[in-house]
Write a structure and sequence with these properties.
single chain; Rossmann fold; 291 residues; binds adenosine-5'-triphosphate; alpha/beta; four-stranded antiparallel sheet
Length: 291
């Protein structure tokens, strides 16, 4: 079976300025991918290229085995998308918008739609142009979720949600991923949320995917080493890459990538000291990788 998403040698640039440079990535059924990157790193550009909204200058994206710029109605029905700026029909009510959308979606789940309308308190009979930003975002998420997509792409889906709605939304995502093996990619600057639900991370930096893999492996790779030593540090410490070094007299704190737990004993021998390994959360890792 082909991968749900296959990104092959993908490059995008605007007016000669490179935004994505030769990206390689794949996503399989059931992957929940946190797409991370600073403002302007290219997250929206990547998500929109995955969806086939633009033809890349180099390379291609394949969705369910077909070039994303050539997918047909059947594949489109298997995708749910929450854009950064919603595309709701201003003059309709949420009820009308949901009804209209459901008509074109053979897999529409009316029970899920009813449940979300009620738990998210969607004002069904108010015109969409009178809704609050958060209410619009909830409706936009419902349109993406309620037809049981195989692939769900969410670009900053929670920016306007209150903490309660955010938590409810995350619970829905976890359930959907677990029950239906849906592939989910979502970008958000609320990294703690992503850490709760994602099992993979794509981290965009300098036009490339600096990390593409398991969240747990990333958390094992980027760590802080604390130790005390009167010796000068050797020029190389195995294959560790030091991201940041702090020293107060004999106390060292090194933030490193490529950490491998089996190196601890030999490093302790090399530095003639005990080392305390501190594991970081995803937000700290993101900050360290952008120092
Ligand atoms: N249509 C376009 N024309 C010209 N430049 C563009 C276009 N779309 C995006 N860019 C540029 O590409 C870069 C990446 O933009 P993009 O919106 O993908 O970033 P992002 O990671 O989603 O940012 P944010 O976190 O702020 O939403 C930015 O420098 C942006 O100015």
């Amino acid at each position: 079976m082909p991968a749900v998403i296959e990104v092959n040698n993908l490059s995008r640039h605007f007016s000669g300025r490179s935004v994505l440079n030769q990206l390689q990535a794949t996503a399989a059924e059931g992957d929940v991918i946190a797409l991370l990157g600073k403002n302007g790193a290219g997250k929206t550009t990547l998500l929109e290229t995955i969806l086939g909204f633009a033809v890349p200058q180099h390379g291609e994206v394949r969705l369910f085995g077909t070039a994303s710029t050539e997918i047909g109605a059947r594949e489109k029905q298997q995708i749910g998308f929450v854009p950064q700026q919603d595309e709701l029909l201003e003059q309709l009510t949420p009820y009308e918008q949901l009804e209209l959308f459901a008509r074109f979606q053979p897999n529409w789940d009316p029970k899920l739609a009813d449940r979300l309308c009620s738990s998210w308190e969607i004002p069904l009979t108010t015109r969409i142009n009178k809704l609050s930003l958060g209410q619009r975002q909830k409706l936009s998420i419902m349109l993406a979720l309620c037809h049981n997509p195989r692939l769900l792409i969410l670009d900053e889906p929670v920016a306007s949600l209150d903490p309660l709605a955010r938590r409810q939304f995350l619970t829905e995502l976890v359930n959907i991923a677990a029950d239906q093996q849906t592939t989910i990619i979502f970008s958000s600057h609320i990294v703690t949320d992503m850490e709760r639900v994602a099992n993979k991370v794509w981290l965009l930096k300098d036009q490339q995917l600096l990390w593409q893999g398991e969240l747990d492996a990333l958390k094992e790779s980027v760590v802080r080493l604390h130790f005390s030593s009167t010796k000068a540090l050797p020029a190389t410490l195995h294959e560790l890459k030091v991201l940041h070094q702090q020293q107060q007299t004999t106390q060292y704190t090194l933030t490193v990538t490529n950490w491998q737990p089996q190196w601890q004993a030999s490093l302790e021998q090399l530095l003639a000291t005990d080392i305390r390994v501190e594991y970081l959360n995803l937000e700290e890792i993101f900050l360290e990788l952008h120092r």
